[in-house]
Amino acid sequence: MKLEALERLAASMRSQQLQCQMFEHRHGRRASDVFFFVGRPSEMLIGARGARPPLAISLEVQDGGVFNPFLGEQYGALCDFLGLLPNPENPFTPSAFFQQMELAIPLIAQHSRVAQPQAIAAYRQVEEGNKVYFVGWRRNEVRGTAVTDANLEKTRLLLGWEAFDLCRRGNVSSCWTDDPQWAIAIDLRALRGQ
Question: Mind giving me the DSSP string for the chain?
Answer without folding.
Answer: -B-HHHHHHHHHHHHHT--EEEEEEEETTEEEEEEEE-SSSEEEEEEETT-SS-EEEEEEEBTTTB-----TTHHHHHHHHHTPPP-TTS---HHHHHHHHHTTS-SS--GGGBPPHHHHHTTS--TTTT--EEEEEEEHHHHT----HHHHHHHHHHH-HHHHHHHHHHTEEEEEES-GGG-----THHHHT-
